[in-house]
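Thanks for the sequence, V.! I ran SDR family oxidoreductase right away. Repeating your input here for the record:
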Amino acid sequence: METLSKGQVALITGGTKGIGKAIADKLSNAGMQVVVTARTAPKENTTGQYFISADLAYPDSAERVAKEILEKYGRIDIIINNAGANLSPAGGFSALSDEHWNNNWQLNFMSAVRVNKALLPTMIEQKSGVIINISTGAAKQPIWEMTMSYSSAKAALNVYSKALANELGAKGIRVNVVSPGVVETPLMLEFIENMAKSSGITSDEAFKAVMDKVGVPMGRMAEPEEVANLVAFLVSSEAKYITGTNYSVDGGASPTT
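Predicted structure:
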């Protein structure tokens, strides 16, 4: 995409698998200097991507990642807060302990808050920057049996993102949210397999149960690249007047526009 600026420094958290990897590859192929974080290094070292090992559920990780990026590159242009996972056990409110709630809050909400806080002073000094917080359709359509604490953490991320966009708009920094629906990632496939085993059904039956519950008119999962395409547009110069908005990539699952 010609409107993606070559040489810009982009951070993608959770950038070694699934949606994060698709975004990292998309931006890297466009000529950006891409930094990815994850708890473990990728099996294959992607050319042009700089890896930082970090578990962003822990408070000190964001400061360490920010310091390493700024020491290496001296700037930050794009932050994609993609690190996250549904850590909720099935069963609704009675199955959720304080630890479950806290784990989801730390990984799916506070990780983004801390990363942004650590890197925003540099963006403000530059008078430019783009932040994309990756949320989920389940923040608007929570599935009580499966996503209660996860959905709550991501709903908080949505509200925080809107407030941050309002604060930073006059400073030359844009903030948007991308909310995928059911995406064919390793985590989603693992979730379906575990659901099949625990319920004594086949993987195909578990997949159908998830799709029926979510209600996807297109009848299939999204490919990670389909989410990455939207993110690439939102960080490009073509989207320079777009901020404070939440975009769904869910195959029509949202009941309203």
